[in-house]
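Supplementary Note 3. Input sequence used for the single-chain structure prediction.
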Amino acid sequence: MLFHQEGGKLRDVSAVAGPAFNNSYSARGLAVGDFNNDGLLDVLIGVNGGAPVLLKNQSAKSNHWLGLKLEGVTCNRDAIGAKFRWSVGGIVRSRLKNNGGSYLSSHDPREVLGAGAAAKIDWVEIVWPKPSVKVQRIANPPMDRYITVKES
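The predicted structure, written as discrete structure tokens, is reproduced below.
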């Protein structure tokens, strides 16, 4: 099943979401990541006794984004617990980098920051997790690609 949030309520959109939602699966794991590096998060479902199912995200192809791969030095290597803030046209958004996944699965460690129709992100701020005390700010980052940011 696939649900879409509309006005604070969930609506079942499985019937119009594609052929993968016409079948039942004995699913045991789920991993979210950008499998084709297009900035859209895809879903890989582990099926018990069967081949995995890859759901390729094909929505919002005209939206802009920035992908970040963090490398911790003082903090943990994957920067789990880092806080992101980014500004697009004066609107500031934020996110916390977490870790995890599902049964025998792990999500893509990279972060995708959305910019919508805006052609640029004004700045990105990374608050590295403890024991680091560093805050890094990237002004006018490149768009629609992945960059690696090492804790400085």
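The chain has no helices and twelve strands. The chain has a mean pLDDT of 94.
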